[in-house]
Each structure stands twice: as structure tokens, then as C-alpha cells.
Amino acid sequence: MSISPLMPVYPRCGFRPVRGDHCHLIGEDGRRYLDFAAGIAVNILGHSHPGLIGAIQRQAETLMHVSNLYGSPQGEHLAQRLVDLTFADTVFFTNSGAEAVECAIKTARAYHQHVGNDHKFELITFNNAFHGRTLATISASSQEKMHKGFLPLLPGFKYAPFDDLEAARALIGPNTAGFLVEPVQGEGGIRPASDAFMQGLRALCDEHDLLLVLDEVQCGVCRTGSFYAYEQYGITPDVLATAKGIGGGFPLGACLATEKAARGMVAGTHGSTYGGNPLAMAAGEAVLDAAANPAFLEHVRTMGERLRARLEQFIGNYPELFELVRGRGLMLGVKMKGEPRPFVAHLRDNHQLLTVAAGDNTLRLVPPLVIDESHIDEFMDKLSAAAASYQVEQPA
């Protein structure tokens, strides 16, 4: 028995995409698939956006990588745009969401320890969260399936039920540094937090001098209909981790922070060889050029409302399959009556429709944010046919 050249940590399916065309992927066999997975909420501009492709091509011809030993006009420009668009005063660029969350965790600890409060190192996180696959980010997640094989965990995390403000309040102690929370849980089942919960966490942070750290890796960059989801709650965080959509498919993440929150992140405390390289910055600029404007956000909200309305009307036809629809913008989940993975496979293999399973028996829909009515029509046609044929295939 020999191991595969690609380390076998993914249970890969039989679909092998080789080309992208706007909101579709084309497999090795030439078949065309409607992509409502978007690289797990990454390809927000689809697969062949001329602005993103052109920016990457032009920058690749000019300068790709130099290291952070030198000044970065490209990084400074993109960072300033993000500062202007958000609550933040400063930005650290990373290559991924997990790295962005790692930086956010370090920022929260450094905030307190910079002034000698070394005992303030614990972050309160929430059940069913997903923050990444590094040792720190799996430690920040309460899911035992992510911990198995990698013990001992990194100390410094306590877990509370999601959307339970009183449970979060009860965990505050002398070692608490802040809260780490997804405003809309992605892997956990497309579960938006309530306004009262998010506003309550902000109030607790203000009362106890704690940091509110948001993980918007999946729900950020226009996905929920605002540039970042926190805007919909009427609050501002102290630190925010972002990635996925911010590069449109190019590996890019960032940790955003206020000046106060970042006071411990001084020279020598953090770094990244590739983070903020000119090629990534060009991709980020192209994404902001296309997406960071009121018209694009209005499009996301409109398409999200139409898709949600049609889903809510549709699921009543199959009460034994589907339970409810939840989410915001074009980050939608259909809670199923059972495990969603067999249905995800059925959609993919029999109807050329790509979706993603999530926790809490959820069928996750995170299409490119550039979908139009024709894609929603195609999606509903495929979903309807799949639900009907799935019913036939299931044992009585």
C-alpha cells in the first residue's frame, strides 16, 4: 500500500475541474457545472473576471515578490483602501484565513500584554465555530473532530454556546482578553448571530476593556450584502480577520485592527514571507475595484433576496427533505432533515450543480456574487430535478 502523491487529507470527489467560465466550471470530461460553491465562498467575481485576470497578469510581468524587508507601495495603497472602507486603522496582510485569524489572536493577546497584563490571554469563542486548521485556530474551535490526532491543544480558549450572550458573559474572568466570533457561522451551518448577541458582546468588551475579534473570513467582502457583516449589526469590532473573497481566488488574507487594539503589534512581533507581496496586492485591488461600491452590494442583496424567496417557496414541496432557509445576502443555507453530504453528491454527480455541505445538516450556497437571474433560474431547475430524483432513489 502506497500513499498518494497528494497527501490524502481530503476525501476528494470524482469531479475534476480544468477550466472556469464565469459562474460555471468545466470538468476534464467537458461537462459544465453550475458553481454555487465558488471555491467555498472565494471566487466572488466568478472564474474569468477580466479585471482580476488582467491585474494579475500585469503585475506578474512587473514584480511578484520582494519580501517585507523593503517598503511596499502596493501594500500601503491596498491597506489604505481597506482602512477607508472599514473601522480599521491598520492592516497586516496574510496568505490565508487561518493566518489572518492567527494574527488576530496574537493582536488580542498583545493588546493586554503590551501594558503588562500578561494574565489576560484567554479568548472566549463559540460552539460549532470554524477558525482554521492551524494549532491555534483548531484550539479556538470547540469541535472535537478537529482536535483528534493533534493534542495537546494550545491553551487560552473557552467555549460558549453560539448566540447565547449570558453564557458568554458568565465565562468572563481575570484571564479574559476578548471574544472571537463569526457574525455568521459558515462551516457551522450558515447561522447568523442575532443583533442582541453581537451588540451585547460589544457592550461587554467596552465594560471590561476586552477586544471584540471578528472572524469574517467567510462572511466578509460583500458576501452578506454589506462590505463586512459587522456593519449590519450596528457595531464595530476591534480586530477583524478577512480572506477568501478579498483575493477573488488568489491567496490573500488580512488582519484589520484599530490603532488601540494594535498597540502591541510593534516591529519584530509578527511577520510573513509572502504576506502582502505585490502580486497578491494587485489581486486585492482588482477585487475592490469591482466589488467595493454601492451598486455591487445592491446587486448582492437583490440576488440574495430573490434566491432566498425562491428557496423558501420551493422547500415546502419537499417537507421530508428540507426544513428551513437561513443566512444573509448570498451566504445562504438550507437546513435539511438529515445529513446533507449525500444530497450534495447527488446534485453534483447527477445534475451538474456544485454546492457545499455544512454543519447542522445544512446545504451551503455561496455562489459567485456576480450571478444573475439566469443563474438563479438554472440553479432552481437543477435543485428541483435533483430533489425529485433524490426522492425516487431513497429507500421507503
From TrEMBL:
<feature type="modified residue" description="N6-(pyridoxal phosphate)lysine">
    <location>
        <position position="244"/>
    </location>
</feature>
<feature type="binding site">
    <location>
        <position position="272"/>
    </location>
    <ligand>
        <name>N(2)-acetyl-L-ornithine</name>
    </ligand>
</feature>
<dbReference type="InterPro" id="IPR050103">
    <property type="entry name" value="Class-III_PLP-dep_AT"/>
</dbReference>
<dbReference type="InterPro" id="IPR049704">
    <property type="entry name" value="Aminotrans_3_PPA_site"/>
</dbReference>
<comment type="similarity">
    <text>Belongs to the class-III pyridoxal-phosphate-dependent aminotransferase family. ArgD subfamily.</text>
</comment>
<keyword id="KW-0028">Amino-acid biosynthesis</keyword>
<dbReference type="GO" id="GO:0042802">
    <property type="term" value="F:identical protein binding"/>
</dbReference>
<feature type="binding site">
    <location>
        <position position="273"/>
    </location>
    <ligand>
        <name>pyridoxal 5'-phosphate</name>
    </ligand>
</feature>
<keyword id="KW-0055">Arginine biosynthesis</keyword>
<keyword id="KW-0963">Cytoplasm</keyword>
<dbReference type="GO" id="GO:0030170">
    <property type="term" value="F:pyridoxal phosphate binding"/>
</dbReference>
<feature type="binding site">
    <location>
        <begin position="215"/>
        <end position="218"/>
    </location>
    <ligand>
        <name>pyridoxal 5'-phosphate</name>
    </ligand>
</feature>
<comment type="pathway">
    <text>Amino-acid biosynthesis; L-arginine biosynthesis; N(2)-acetyl-L-ornithine from L-glutamate: step 4/4.</text>
</comment>
<dbReference type="GO" id="GO:0003992">
    <property type="term" value="F:N2-acetyl-L-ornithine:2-oxoglutarate 5-aminotransferase activity"/>
</dbReference>
<dbReference type="Pfam" id="PF00202">
    <property type="entry name" value="Aminotran_3"/>
</dbReference>
<protein>
    <recommendedName>
        <fullName>Acetylornithine aminotransferase</fullName>
        <ecNumber>2.6.1.11</ecNumber>
    </recommendedName>
</protein>
<feature type="binding site">
    <location>
        <position position="130"/>
    </location>
    <ligand>
        <name>pyridoxal 5'-phosphate</name>
    </ligand>
</feature>
<dbReference type="InterPro" id="IPR004636">
    <property type="entry name" value="AcOrn/SuccOrn_fam"/>
</dbReference>
<dbReference type="GO" id="GO:0005737">
    <property type="term" value="C:cytoplasm"/>
</dbReference>
<dbReference type="InterPro" id="IPR015421">
    <property type="entry name" value="PyrdxlP-dep_Trfase_major"/>
</dbReference>
<dbReference type="GO" id="GO:0006526">
    <property type="term" value="P:L-arginine biosynthetic process"/>
</dbReference>
<dbReference type="InterPro" id="IPR015422">
    <property type="entry name" value="PyrdxlP-dep_Trfase_small"/>
</dbReference>
<keyword id="KW-0032">Aminotransferase</keyword>
<feature type="binding site">
    <location>
        <position position="133"/>
    </location>
    <ligand>
        <name>N(2)-acetyl-L-ornithine</name>
    </ligand>
</feature>
<dbReference type="InterPro" id="IPR015424">
    <property type="entry name" value="PyrdxlP-dep_Trfase"/>
</dbReference>
<keyword id="KW-0663">Pyridoxal phosphate</keyword>
<dbReference type="InterPro" id="IPR005814">
    <property type="entry name" value="Aminotrans_3"/>
</dbReference>
<comment type="subunit">
    <text>Homodimer.</text>
</comment>
<feature type="binding site">
    <location>
        <begin position="97"/>
        <end position="98"/>
    </location>
    <ligand>
        <name>pyridoxal 5'-phosphate</name>
    </ligand>
</feature>
<keyword id="KW-0808">Transferase</keyword>
